[in-house]
Amino acid sequence: MFNLVKTAVLMAAITALFMAVGAMIGGQTGMLVALAVAVGLNFYSYWFSDKLVLKMYSAREVDASSAPQFYGMVKDLAQRANLPMPKVYLIDEAAPNAFATGRNPENAAVAATTGILRVLSERELRGVMAHELAHVAHRDILISTVSATMAGAISMLANFAAFFGGRDENGRPSNPIAGIAVAILAPLAASLIQMAISRAREFEADCGGAEISGDPAALAAALEKIHRYAQGTPLPTAEAHPETAQMMIMNPLSGGGLRGLFSTHPATEERVARLLAMAKR
Question: Which of 84, 83, 87, 138 is nearest to 109 (CA)?
Answer without folding.
Answer: 87
